[in-house]
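User: My instructor asked us to take a sequence, write out its structure as C-alpha cells, and then describe one feature of it. I'm not sure where to start. Here is the sequence I was given:
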Amino acid sequence: MSSDLTFIGLFLQASFIVQLVMLLLLSVSVASWTFIFQRSKALNAARTEMRQFEDKFWSGADLNKLYQELSSRAQLTGMGSIFCAGFKEFVRLRKSNTPTNGVVDGTYRAMRVSMSRQVEELESRLPFLATAGSISPYIGLFGTVWGIMNAFIALGEVQQATLAMVAPGIAEALIATAIGLFAAIPAVIAYNRFSHQVEKLENSYGNFMEEFSAILHRQAAAQAQQV
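Assistant: Let's start with the prediction itself. The C-alpha cells for your sequence are:
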C-alpha cells in the first residue's frame, strides 16, 4: 500500500465506492453552503422589510395611501404583502355591503393565505438542510465501513501484516466520515437557526394580522353605524 497520506493521495487510493461517497458528500456540502447563504440573505431581507413596514404603518400613515404605495411595487413580500391582501379584501367586502363580521372574517382569511405563502417561501430549502444534516454522517459512515472492510481484505492477502500497511487504507476510509460530518454540522446549525428565525417572523406576522384586524373591525363598525 502507498504511504501517501495527503487528502488527494488518500482520495485517489480509495476504492470506487468510497470515492463516490466522498464526491456525493462534497456535493451535498457545496449545495448546503449555497442554500445557507441564500436563506441568510432572504431572512435578513424579510426582517428589514418588516421593520421598515412597521415603522411606516405605526407612524399613522393613511391606509389608502400606504396601500397604493405598496401595491405599485413590482414585487411585494413579507408584512407588506399581508397588509395589501387584507386591505384589498376589506375594501372589496365593504363595497359589496357585507356585514361587519363578514368583512373582518374575510379580511383575516385573505391575510392568512398571504402569510402562509410568505412563510412557505421563507422555509424553502430548509428541508434540504435538515435532510443533509441527518443523513450525511450515515453516508460517510457507510464509506468508512466499506473502506475499512476493503483494507482488511487486502491485509489478509499478505503474509506479514504491519501498521504501515493497514494505516493508509483505514485513513482513507475515515476521511469519508470526516467529510460526512463536515457536510452535516453546518447544515444542522443553519437549519436550527433559520427555523427559529422563520418562527419569529411568523409570530410577528400573526401579531400584525391580529392588530390590523382589530383596526379594520373598528373602521367597519364605525362605517356601519353611519349608514
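For the description part of your assignment, you could build on this observation: The chain has seven helices and no strands. Try explaining in your own words what that tells you about the chain.
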